[in-house]
Amino acid sequence: MVDGKALVLDYLREVFSEGRLDRLDRYLAGEEFMGGVRELVGRWRTAFPDFTETVEEVYADGDRVITVSALSGTHRGVLRSRLGPIEPTGRQVRWSRIAVRRVIGDRFADGFFEEDEVGLLEQLGVLDTSRGVGRGRHDPLSDVRR
Prior knowledge:
Elements: H1 4-17, H2 24-27, H3 31-47, E1 52-61, E2 64-74, E3 79-81, E4 84-86, E5 92-104, E6 107-115, H4 117-123
Antiparallel strand pairs: 1-2, 2-5, 3-4, 5-6
C-alpha cells in the first residue's frame, strides 16, 4: 500500500510548485481528472510564475489525504478569476487552501479543495471587504497571508 502522505507531498512539490505537468500520470488516475488539474496548475503558474504551495499540515484517514497549505506567488501574469481577467499587479500574495484527495492504489482518484479566494482578491486590490463583507467562516491560516 502506498504512503498517501508521501504521495501528496511529492505531487504538490513536483506538479504545483515546480510546474511539472509531465508528472501528472504518475500521481493522478483518469484523464478527466488530469485535465482539470492541468488547467488549474496552468492558470496559477500563468498568473504567478513563481507559484509555490507550502504544506502546513497533512493528515491521512483511510483512503483520504487532507492538506492545509499556504499558497504564494508574485502576480506577473493575467489571472483568470470569477470576477473576470485580472491584469498583473506585481504584488506578492499568500492565501490558504484545504484539500482532500482520495487515494486508490498508488494514485489520486479524485479530490476537492477550498481556498481563500476572498483573501487573494483583497491582496490583489480588486476586492474591498472593508465595508463588512465577511468570509463567513473561520480562517485558520489568516496569519500566513500577511
